[in-house]
Design goal:
Number of helices: 6
Distance between the termini: 76 Å
Strand order of the largest sheet: 2-1-3-4
Number of domains: 2
CATH topology of the largest domain: Glutaredoxin
Shape: elongated
Number of strands: 4
Radius of gyration: 24 Å
Length: about 220
């Protein structure tokens, strides 16, 4: 009688453990299916994988931006704005370009990446707000402003490094570049799907100090 009771308790405990295990497996399976698109996201598609500057340029120093446009104009410092989203192939590719520009001109150029999805379409932005210059539809969009806030360049679409480097050098009164700057792959990327990312001297941008917060 006692033996039968103990055996019944063990069988009950066994089935309880089996049921718990099956529930855990089902939950993990559901989470895995729900994240399929993210797991297979990469630099060559329009899938979301996380912040593009961290994942595809190994650069955590651009987000959030150190200085907003109003503060940059007050200091008479040129600003390059990039409007982007994290689930755009073109934006992923240009994350490296902005990082490279930061590495080259971080002492004289303010880099201001802005998530387009975070812009409030109901708000009336002013010319000293970077969001004022967003086209409202397409990304990436690059807007280069001089130290007084005048627009020097306003381009939509993926741009190579040279297309931004040349006007930046002209604005900063630097001589034209005589040799093309090679963009290299980063030594480390926090995303397994970002295996085709690369960065050169822009890794120096991670050494940049704290600035004024974006308002």
């Amino acid at each position: 009688m006692v033996i039968g009771f103990k055996l019944g308790c063990r069988v009950k405990q066994y089935w309880q453990r089996c049921c718990c295990l099956m529930v855990i497996i089902a939950l993990l399976w559901g989470v895995g299916i729900g994240n399929t698109s993210t797991a297979f996201a990469g630099i060559n598609d329009d899938q979301y994988d996380g912040n593009i500057f961290m994942l595809y340029a190994s650069n955590a120093g651009l987000i959030p931006a150190k200085v907003n446009l109003a503060a940059a104009i007050q200091k008479q410092r040129p600003t390059l704005v990039m409007f982007y989203v994290d689930d755009s192939r073109e934006c992923k590719e240009n994350a490296l370009v902005l990082t490279q520009l930061q590495g080259e001109y971080k002492q004289s150029l303010n880099l201001l990446p802005i998530m387009a999805d975070a812009i409030n379409p109901e708000r009336q932005y002013q010319p000293n707000d970077a969001q004022y210059y967003y086209n409202g539809e397409y990304v990436p969009q690059f807007v280069l402003l001089d130290g007084t806030g005048q627009v020097v360049l306003n381009q939509i679409g993926q741009l190579p490094f040279e297309a931004l480097d040349t006007p930046v050098r002209e604005l900063l009164e630097l001589p034209p570049r005589t040799e093309a700057l090679r963009l290299e792959r980063p030594a480390f990327s926090p995303s397994p799907s970002a295996d085709r990312t690369f960065v050169g001297d822009a890794i120096r941008s991670l050494e940049s100090g704290r600035g004024e917060p974006v308002q």
